[in-house]
Amino acid sequence: MKAKLTLFLLLLTILSFNIEAQTWNAVGTGMNNGVLTTAVYNGELYAGGFFTTADGNSANHIAKWNGTAWLPLGVGADATVEVLAVYNGELYVGGSFSNAGGVAAMGIAKWNGTVWSAVGASMNNGVRALVVDTVNNILYVGGRFTMAGGTAANYIAKWDGTIWSAVGQGMNTNLLSLVMYNGQLYAGGEFTQADAQPAKHIAVWNGTSWAPVGVGFINGGGTGYIYSLLSYNGELYAGGEFRIADGNTASYLAKWTGTVWASVGGTMDGTVYELSSINGNLYAGGSFYHVGVLLCNDIAYWDGTTWFTMATGMDGIVYSIINFNSEIYAGGFYTQADGNPMNRISRWSPVTSVLNNKNTFTETSLFPNPASNILFIKTSEKIMSIRYLNDEGKQSDIRLENNSINISELSAGIYILQMNDAVGKTITKKFIKE
Questions:
Q1: Beta carbons within 10 angstroms of residue 14's beta carbon
Q2: Residue 394 confidence (pLDDT)
Q3: Beta strands 116-118 and 103-104: pairing type?
Q4: Alpha-carbon distance 390 to 171, whole Å?
Q5: What are the tens digits of pLDDT across the range 287-324?
Q6: Which domains does the chain have, with CATH numbers?
Q7: CA angle at residue 334 from 24 to 51, to 5 degrees?
Q8: What 3-state DSSP class applies to 4?
Q9: Smallest Cα–Cα separation from 145: which of 125, 163, 131?
Q10: What is the Cα–Cα distance from 335 to 345, expressed in whole angstroms?
Q11: For residue 357, what is the enclosing H or E element?
Q12: What is the dihedral of CA 181, 184, 186, 191, to 10 degrees?
């Protein structure tokens, strides 16, 4: 009991000091249309998408941010850029274009920081996913194509820096996401077969053949598309447009335990298009409003046990999340972030550091305290998320209704209540459950 109390007091100290508020900020004047993908290359942030202007200047479907302004990459691409990845010191660009920088390049091209060039004989259709196998120095490419460099390759191919090769028999339709996990290649998408065998929207390549990963995914309408795959904390995560994973309820986001797909800390209410691991947290972007009871608006992050909001979120879909210069950049189709104008891209930045919760929530109090059933919260701020910690350090979300919480089912004892407002400011208060 003494050890538990010591841990609890330590948690209280951590929560009470060095709290850093954050908010969304503009990245120049942004883009005139959606941002689908981002990557860091040669110390600069690159963005691709539907847009044709960045900072009000011509930038056809791709641009780079040098820290102060958006710049074009020559004449850019002649159609949408959907995915970016760095391989062998060059930036590889995939999408639905047929020309990049004046160079004929169907579906894929590369940029060396100065000029564009083709990647072999390219594809016969668009590219949607790229991932690098760093152990074997291979670039895997997925998308809507059935030919790569003149070689038959059904929706997936590999590039070794010189030649294109097929990856088994491939899939029966579009591939949308790729990730390396535990030394193997995982693919997700619209497909229902891999190597001509059933594989419901997800499959794994062991170097010689494709195999299904669990039973797979379905949605209410029979689909179960996987838009994003991520290796996080030693587990495989999948985001997409599904409601059921391996027969279990796991709406739009699931993780692979090694034997079965399972939900992740509460169901979402809309499609997940992006997953990213940054500083020990999993970030999810998409077209959802809630994770469980938490209102988050298209973006949220998971620390392994609890979901958190990022201010009031966005007013439109988030497609890309990346860490650049210690800030989190989010791209998509939104025009507002946290209620402020942000044209399709913004950055999550620290705004202040506070000590002992000064200058966070003003005049915040809990009453009655101690309490047995309903605990009321008096505050001048709008609470966006709330959770409690018990004396063992266990964290749990709790529903806020009319600035009150129902604590009737909690065991008697001392608890810490942590509240976050619309700009990420935090306060902790102690309460006693009778």
A1: 11
A2: 66
A3: unpaired
A4: 49
A5: 999 998 889 999 999 999 889 999 999 999 999 999 99
A6: 2-10+357-433 (2.60.40.760), 20-354 (2.130.10.10)
A7: 110
A8: helix
A9: 125
A10: 8
A11: none
A12: -170
- Tell me how far apart the alpha carbons of residues 234 and 140 are, in angstroms, rounded to a whole number: 21
> Is the sign of the CA dihedral 227, 234, 305, 261 positive or negative?
positive
CB 296: neighbour CB atoms within 10 A?
Answer: 24
75 closest CA partner among 90, 59, 86: 59
What are 40-81's pLDDT values in tens digits?
999 999 999 999 999 999 999 999 999 999 999 999 999 999
Torsion of CA 331, 335, 340, 342, to 10 degrees: 50
- Picking from 128, 102, 38, 75, the residue whose alpha carbon sits closest to that of residue 320 is 38
360-387 burial by CB neighbour count: b if 16+ within 10 A, else e?
bbeebebeeeebeeebebebebebbbbb
Of 19, 16, 11, which Cα lies nearest the Cα of 308? 19
Say if residues 187 and 194 touch (Cβ distance below 8 Å). Answer: yes
H-state helical runs in 17-97: none
Q: What is the CA radius of gyration of the chain?
A: 23
Q: Any bridge partners for residue 231, and if so which?
A: 236
Q: How far is CA 330 from CA 240, 275, 401, 421, in A?
A: 18, 11, 30, 20
Distance CA 109, CA 97 (A): 9
The 8-class DSSP code of residue 326 comes to: T
d(CA 407, CA 373): 5
| Torsion sign, CA atoms 214, 220, 226, 229 | negative
Task: Label residue 393 by pLDDT band (50, 70, 90).
Answer: low
In this structure, what token pair is assigned to residue 141?
A: 């490419």
> Could you give the CA distance from residue 55 to residue 32 in angstroms, rounded to a whole number?
9
Peptide bond into 350 cis (omega under 30): no
Let me know how long the chain is: 434
Please determine, for residue 144, whether its predicted confidence score (pLDDT) is greater than 70.
yes
Q: Record the tokens describing residue 340, joined without a space.
A: 């402020």
Residue scoring higher pLDDT (301 or 363): 301
